Amino acid sequence: MKNAKNRKNKLFSPEYFWFDFVKLTAAPGILWFRPKKLYESEAAKKKIKGPAILISNHIGTIDPMYLMLVIWYRRHRFICKSELMSSKRGAFWLKKFRCIPIDNGDMSFTAMRQITDVLKNGELVSMFPEGAVHTQSDTPSSFKSGMILMSLQGGAPIIPIYIKPRKHFYERITAVIGEPFSVTEKYGERPKFSQIDEAAKLLHEKEMRLMQICNNYKNKKETDENG
Amino acid sequence: MQMKREEITEKLKDILISASDDPQTAEKCTDDSKLQTELGMTSVNMLYTVIAIEETFDIRFDDVTVSSFETFGDVVDYIEKKLS
Question: CA distances (Å), B41 to each of A205, B19, B46, B47, B64, in order?
């Protein structure tokens, strides 16, 4: 009975109405702009099931759409800056899309608990650990370590994704998906403060590796095209 | 559950000692120690400590933010209030 309800929820859930509506109406565009996906390894090719935290570099305000295109088969719960909720219109739409607002500088325990509950419920949380849009270069800036706590508390692996900025609007985006990273497997259930920072640095290094994979692919493609 | 302030202080110290790499954490933990400047705690460290406090003392923090606590003593006061 429970399984039947879960299956029905997978297809239609009123809570995700706007999320699903946008996905359906944007389907032709999604097909046209479907991303070229590269993988760090065979393990990264596995479909994401159950709770997980998706992290990505933040190259523009449209990045949540890109993440939705890359992992199209799951509904995302995006973490956004609480400042975005300050305008009425922003708050309205972010709530409709079930985003979770957090204050970067002074995170509340309630927000942390909400994210943990979402993960324990088996959902997918997507976020940009750079904390702000980074347009200066393709190289992602350092990651904040809040995601490590979320992973520990929610019992969810962290999956890094690198999105390559497009040169022209009509180009397909290229995204590289990394292997899932388990904080508990690496540091146990109660890591030290320093290990939390270390884990964030490791994930940043992983993101740089994904960027390298993407650049190598692009260079090879350009060389092949130029004969 | 009633607990003396000294007991709360010791348990909180244990939490911080086990999470910190600084061998002088125990000496640094006094009621007036500033969490950020003297104990070197970041907002993420603070959240992590709160999770450990909730598990150790079996209490639930209200909707407070990281900046709600300035000193080590503030955290002890909060736990004491929650337990009473």
Answer: 24, 11, 6, 10, 17
